[in-house]
Design brief:
Length: 355
């Protein structure tokens, strides 16, 4: 981690709510000066959005990886575009945030904050990236995703499960269904949610069905000969996403590993004890949001401190690591993989097992 950037990130954490509120109020004043006002009730969500932005700004500075913040901003721009909202509000929010931070932070923090926020401002010179629906219809798997999604959105649970499991009878493996159908289904649900075309309860319903399908698939999984190795899997503290970690765990299990699944949102001190008590041979940590990078670095060092020199190799994965290829090194992990099959290959390499 970058020492100076981490120091600024800590200052941002300390004043998070205040910086976000001051930015939102300033933004409102600017609008009022131009004869506009925020619609009623929008101030609270503006403060919450700004808070999320300041958090990722801190992560980007602490890791010295601008891409984390710039990509988070792109995500915001795409969401605005999909909803037909002008992105000028977002651009104004950044300008107000810049003012607020430069007034509140000590002078030695200015140049880092300024250069990142200026780079963010320049990104508005390019058009925002449209969000596709992530549904492809050219392959049998793509059509399966579409049919299952339709069944889910029409609350036809049994049909959805039947469609998700049917490929097994056509010779497709459990692991291929997980990565080729369930993963893309979740991505499509996320894209539709981001476009404002799908409600939160529909995403929850879809995820429940995917979790149910994962349990049913697991009961039909072919396992390779046991390797005599265990892998402890979890999502970092604060990360409520765990479908990715489940799919990774299944790939390890099919490859002959003993998976120890701790699920979502596991705090560092508990994870160290779990690794120690279970004698895990490998630890695999899943991270979904760019705001969860520093806590991943802290988690890894907590585990190592708890295990006092006896910690197993640590593998990390998830979208922020796919976005910034060397981020796994920055958080102090021993390895990284982009996908579930890659995770098993990397796990074997880390333990010196033949491929
Ligand atoms: C379901 C879901 C949720 C559910 C999760 C429930 C659950 N039990 O998992 C809930 C409702 C909790 C949720 C909450 C939020 N979510 Co959400 N969520 C999703 C969604 C739709 C699917 C996630 C998923 O299952 N993906 C499928 C898996 C298979 O993909 P994956 O996780 O990337 O995993 C693969 C690889 O990354 C890798 N991998 C993953 N882990 C690991 C670990 C190791 C060790 C290795 C080697 C590899 C590896 O292998 C996996 C298999 O290929 C995604 C959309 C998407 N594109 O993924 C949004 C998404 C991730 N969520 C998003 C957001 C914004 C949120 C919230 C902030 C929303 C809010 N305002 O509250 C909160 C944050 C909660 C939190 N603190 O974590 C955004 C993130 C955008 C961004 N740029 O940061 C996404 C991308 C949606 C979108 N398109 O905008 N979410």
């Amino acid at each position: 981690m970058d020492q100076h950037g981490s120091f600024i990130a800590r200052l941002l954490d300390t004043g998070l709510r205040g910086f976000a509120a001051e930015t939102a109020v300033r933004q409102r004043q600017c609008l009022q000066e131009q004869g506009f006002d925020l619609p009623p009730g929008v101030l609270d969500s503006l403060i919450a959005d700004t808070e999320a932005r300041v958090l990722v700004l801190g992560e980007s500075l602490a890791t010295a990886r601008p891409a984390l913040f710039l990509e988070h901003l792109e995500w915001g721009r795409s969401s605005y575009l999909a909803r037909g909202v002008s992105e000028q509000g977002l651009a104004l929010n950044l300008l107000c945030l810049r003012d607020v931070l430069l007034r509140n932070l000590p002078p030695d923090a200015h140049s880092a904050v300024q250069s990142l926020l200026d780079a963010a401002g320049r990104s508005f010179e390019l058009p925002p990236r449209p969000i596709g629906d992530c549904l492809e219809t050219d392959s049998p798997q793509g059509r399966r995703v579409q049919e299952a999604l339709l069944a889910i959105l029409e609350a036809r649970r049994e049909d959805a499960l039947r469609l998700l499991l049917a490929p097994l009878d056509e010779g497709v493996s459990v692991l291929e269904v997980e990565t080729g159908i369930l993963g893309p289904l979740q991505t499509a649900v996320g894209a539709l949610w981001q476009r404002g075309e799908l409600h939160v309860h529909e995403e929850h319903y879809a995820t429940r069905i995917v979790e149910e399908a994962l349990v049913l698939l697991r009961s039909r999984m072919v396992r390779g000969p046991g390797l005599g190795k265990s892998v402890l899997l979890c999502s970092v503290a604060g990360n409520l996403h765990d479908v990715g970690a489940c799919i990774v765990a299944d790939h390890f299990e099919a490859g002959g590993w003993r998976p120890l699944r701790l699920g979502a949102n596991v705090p560092g001190e508990d994870l160290g004890r779990a690794v120690f008590d279970f004698h895990a041979d490998l630890l695999a940590v899943s991270v979904t949001l760019s705001s969860q990078v520093r806590r991943t670095a802290a988690l890894l060092s907590d585990v190592r401190a708890f295990c006092d020199g006896e910690a197993p190799p640590i593998l990390v994965g998830g979208p922020p690591f796919n976005l910034v290829p060397d981020l796994w090194r920055v958080v102090g992990a021993d390895g990284f993989a982009e996908s579930a099959p890659g995770a098993v290959r990397e796990g074997k390499r880390l333990l010196g097992l033949s491929a």
